[in-house]
Design a protein that fits this description.
Helix content is 56%, strand content 4%. The chain is flat, with a radius of gyration of 21 Å. Keywords: Membrane, Transmembrane, Transmembrane helix.
């Protein structure tokens, strides 16, 4: 039986603008909605409907690029931390009781 080579391109994460695609895409949609509501609410006043969401988007893309360069799986670790946070509550010492969490209906 021959060994099949594993291509590194298949293991590489998909990045948009150099950052995680879920983070960049989600913030892009939020900033587009913010720009649209600012355009409808304020009109063409001082171009703020472009500058404010654009600045927020570029700032988040900069942070997303730094995160992706450090560890491409960092956003998954953060989301898992938020998802399982109630099950692994911080304890001051090892003998402390676990929190009583009802995760299903009786």
């Amino acid at each position: 039986m021959e060994k099949a080579p594993v291509r590194l391109s298949l293991l590489r994460r998909i990045a948009w603008f150099g950052g995680d695609r879920r983070l960049v895409g989600g913030v892009g949609i939020i900033c587009a909605a913010l720009g649209w509501t600012m355009f409808v609410g304020f009109g063409l006043s001082f171009g703020l409907f472009i500058l404010v969401p654009g600045g927020i988007f570029l700032g988040v893309v900069w942070v997303a690029r730094k995160m992706y360069a450090a560890d491409p799986w960092m956003i998954d670790v953060g989301l898992r931390h938020l998802k399982y946070g109630k099950y692994y509550a911080p304890k001051s010492h090892l003998g402390k009781e676990h929190p009583n969490i009802r995760d299903f209906k009786n």
